Amino acid sequence: MIAALLLLCAVVEHGSNVVAAQSCVSSHKVECFVLADYLNASAPVNIEVCAGKNLIFSLEGFTDYPVCDWIRGKDVVTAVNGSRSIILSSFSEADSGAYTLSYETSSGTGSSLTVSLHVVKKRPTKPWLMLSNVNKPKSSPTFTCASEGCPKPETEWSSTGVTGPEIKSYKYYDKGVMCCATNTEGQECSKLYDYDLDLMRNDGDSNVTVSPDQPLLLRCRMRDEQPVWEKDSKTLDAPALACPTAENKICIRNDSHYGQMTYLFIKSASVTHSGTYTCRGKKNIMSVYVNVQAEGFLNVQLDKRKVIAVNNAKNSCLEASVSYHPMLQFCSWQAPNKIFTKCTWDTWKTKHRTVQLCGPLMSGDYKLHLEAGGQNKTKTISVCVVDTPTFSFKDVDNTFTLETVSAVPANYTWMACSLFNDSCDSESSWEVIQNGSVADSEFFCNKIIKSSLRRELAPANDFKFCITNSVGSWCKTFYSPPYMRMRVAPNPDNDHLMVLKVGSLLLLLTLVVVSVVLMYFVKKKKAQYEPQLQMIQMVGPSDNDYIYINFRNFEYDLKWEFPRENLELGKELGSGAFGMVVRATAYGISKPGVSQQVAVKMLKDTYQTVEKEALMSELKMLTHIGHHSNIVNLLGACTDSGPIYLIFQYCCYGDLLNYLKSNSERYHKSVTDAFNKDRFCSLYHNLQPRKNSSEVETTVDNYVPMSCSTTRGQEDIALLTLSSSDGNIYEDMCESPDDQTEDLHTLTFDDLLSFAFQVAKGMEFLSSKNCIHRDLAARNVLVTKGRLVKIGDFGLARDIENDSNYVVRGNVRLPVKWMAPESIFQGMYTPKSDVWAYGILLWEIFSLGVTPYPGVKVDHNFYSMIDSGFKMECPYYANESVYKMMCQCWALDPSKRPSFSKLVFFMSDQLTDSEKMLYCNMQDQFSSDYQNASAIPDISALTTQDDNKTQTANDYCSTHVTEEGKTESDC
């Protein structure tokens, strides 16, 4: 007896033994077994047969053909007499169950056999794409597609609509090709791994995982030249029409129909085929990492919560990102009412698939059950469907009590309409008298919210209560009944009333005139420009005893001067009240004849003399500070015969805040080996080689791939290091700013750690120079190529009048949400206040760009919260140790906050050993000679005159103790 297993093999399980069929043949339509082999079976025989197949009992082996009955329960299903076989028609799942097969020979002997029949259905396997006709002369090869499943899957080429196992390859020389296998249990698809060198477009994956003995097919194409394939930097030869016939050999096939194409085909992959395969043309290259592994994996990413408005519940969808190998065996959503629904997903993504469940959705926990790669996983998302809230209102003893139901977090506001208003129809008639909020909690859906208000807080008849959550805002107005309404008694003396009205009108007119005059003088007295970055000198034993160093009377070293005619200004990058920053091209700033993209800071045309002096002081301070890899470094300046231009490095990816926001959807906290190879194995092929020793070396200060091996199981970290070349601050970090691949912007948890580490390194350098930043935030950190981040000062070009992050306090606008308490309340800035701001910046990084203190308005309640030691909750993407360090940065006592050296050590410890290699040579890179290294002034020879006291510049030097216990000077 024999049972079917999928499509290609038939086995029968007898007790604990599995016996293969000996004398009958199975096909994709028929399963068969030999009855004579199991005449003496004492235990039931288990048979597994695919739905839709016929089942044949072969009677070979008997001296004569017996009389046989196939019985289910007490009913004879089929009976045969004198036939060579018993043929049972197509099975369905309902046919599963216990059967009895009885037989009797002509000699009178007979017996029976108990059979347990299991009729199964199985999803299609991931289709195998193969190449055929590879050795046929003057002909393009053919794409073939095969898949297994139960029932047998139908195959279809999705980009063409052609149904069947093969298509002609030459017809699809310029488009992607995908084969999908479908049966009643689901669908699986495979794309041709296609690499277009002309467009530098990858229509496959940059990381491919296949199982042993499976085929592998890659295609590389160009328009005008024949590309070649390399494996681990060694060229794979392509003899004309001589592809090896052995299955475990690599076959290279060139095809020149309608373009130049080169196929790489392995009919049966083995572990030895793992490695990096590169398709190379004369100008461009693209790489793919092939990993041949038998072990399966399953990774799922699903949000923990989702809040939906009730009117959107019918059309909303739940989504999960799923990656797996080798195939997805089971996928189903379980609703809160215990109903199961099969997953739906997008077709064209073959590795990282978006699994969906679309509405109508209800409140409760949805579970996603998956099985793939030998693993079972269940993920849960809590859904809250929010309806328009109802308000329960009570007025007892002049106290209003409001009760409603809302999703949290939520904010609410009490407002009153004054007695003296003729009407409460306009929004301006309502005055806010009380605010409140309900924080997020484990129970976040339909939480009961209660609030009370004493009537005497505002002289009013009408009150309004408004509540706001993540879905929307709702308000309810409460009107006092007529018998309780307060009224302003009229004055019976009309003449006296007229005098009162005239006097009020005159008083109002006077107030208007005074207000206009005050506004004129406020506008006329515009605040002066002052750089946020300042160098301080300690003048007392306390950390709070310091003065700002005034560089106004320092001499400017002309070695930093850059010819104005070699600077071509471009588009504006930012503009503020005092000046602007523009993108520019500098010719010869790094070496003669070579242009470079730079950023130029300048004042506006209407600048005042004091602002020009402040910009010159900033220039002198920057030349004194020096260079660091995590600072936006000064490259030169134009000060002669025209406006002052400060020339800085240009960072092509903009500020860190917008970088995090724009790439937040691509965040993956746990990434597979495939994911990291995608990002790093194919992006850095255009690095310039070193020049010979007779030339000045200006190698690229960039990240280059170090390794692409699997680490930490399925969670991979792309191993990077800096180029071993000497650092060059003039190198254009963004030579091709428009050539930004999507994979480059995929974020991982280690990327967030690296951003935090680099900012800490930059601030450690500044604090070692006795510099304080005073506006450290993600908006003031730039991102450039290789995910290198640099701290900058953009106060001159920031429009703080229209930037909601800068709030009026006193007569200035300040970024209070980033400021330490001593800075807010005492106007005191120290390196420890920068540490507080660094903690806020950490919160921005690990929330992927969310504004700090979300939903909290900057008012007296906010200042009270800060003064009382309030700390934000842990951001969504941070771990516990990073959050603890944030809280240490927010210590009310500045002396209890960590130093930047300790923060550097902590972030370095958080990074894996492989990431540490990325930064360990960073300082060494920038310690080499620069073009203007000699232009850094020797301030020991300079003097400054202040309040009739002569000081040498050495008075501004300070010492500090290193981690090794040595004393070093900043000068």
TrEMBL record:
GO terms for cellular component: endomembrane system; plasma membrane; receptor complex. InterPro entries: Ig-like_dom_sf (IPR036179), Ig-like_fold (IPR013783), Ig_sub (IPR003599), Kinase-like_dom_sf (IPR011009), Prot_kinase_dom (IPR000719), Protein_kinase_ATP_BS (IPR017441), RTK (IPR050122), Ser-Thr/Tyr_kinase_cat_dom (IPR001245). The keyword Metal-binding applies. It catalyses: L-tyrosyl-[protein] + ATP = O-phospho-L-tyrosyl-[protein] + ADP + H(+). Residues 1-21 form the signal peptide. It is found in: Cell membrane; Endomembrane system. The record marks 919 as: Important for interaction with phosphotyrosine-binding proteins. The keyword Glycoprotein applies. Mg(2+) binds at residues 546, 780, 793. Its EC number is 2.7.10.1. GO terms for biological process: B cell differentiation; cell surface receptor protein tyrosine kinase signaling pathway; cytokine-mediated signaling pathway; macrophage differentiation; myeloid cell development. Its main location: membrane. ATP binds at residues 574-581, 601, 779. The active site is at 775 (proton acceptor). GO terms for molecular function: ATP binding; growth factor binding; metal ion binding; transmembrane receptor protein tyrosine kinase activity. Keywords: ATP-binding, Cell membrane, Disulfide bond, Glycoprotein, Immunoglobulin domain, Kinase, Magnesium, Membrane, Metal-binding, Nucleotide-binding, Phosphoprotein, Receptor, Signal, Transferase, Transmembrane, Transmembrane helix, Tyrosine-protein kinase. SMART domains: IG, TyrKc. It is an enzyme of class 2 (transferase). It comes from the Eukaryota. PANTHER family: RECEPTOR-TYPE TYROSINE-PROTEIN KINASE FLT3, TYROSINE-PROTEIN KINASE RECEPTOR. This is receptor protein-tyrosine kinase. The lineage of its organism: Eukaryota, Metazoa, Chordata, Craniata, Vertebrata.
